[in-house]
Design brief:
The protein is an alpha+beta fold and 193 residues long. The chain is built from four helices and seven strands; from the N terminus they run H-E-H-H-E-E-E-E-E-E-H. A hairpin with a 2-residue loop joins strand 6 and strand 7. The longest helix has 47 residues.
Amino acid sequence: MLIKPLKMLIKGVLLALLVLVLVGLILPQNYNVSKTVQINANLEVVKPLITDFSQWQKWSPWEKVDPSIRFTLGEPSSGLGAHQSWKGKWGYGEMIITSVSKNKVNFNILLNTEHIVRGTFNLSEQNGIVTLICNIKGQTTAPLISGYTAILSEYMLSNTVSLGLNNIQTIAQLNDAQRIMHSHDSKNSTSKN
């Protein structure tokens, strides 16, 4: 009598697993995150925060997301070809800046030697306000669960990129205010002589 419900339970669990695998196969393996922030600062203050990996520790949220993460700066550490790598509890990866122009910074990320992510920072300045847009596109490669991994990756990156952009906004606005105050102080001290 107990055998029949047990068989039905096993069949139900197997059917549920099959459905989960099939849905995982059907889900898209690609993900895309695009976030924007308005920064009340000069472009020359904002851009180095992005193009110089030694500046990333000021704003990058990854150490808060994964306290075990450890970054290593490569040579060069800023501009075209800048390179950094990391290891943490979720794996390891490396990032390289592939192009830098006045209003655009492209980068590639390789996660765990198999997962490639491409990203772009677009910057534009108008009336003392910098619009910073971060676009990240990736594709997961985990067999059978790629669709679920893509959903999770998009969710995590969406929140982390938003936090990072907000941190850049705060730091850039503080740096710009200090730059302006220093400029005014220098002019005042020069005019007194």
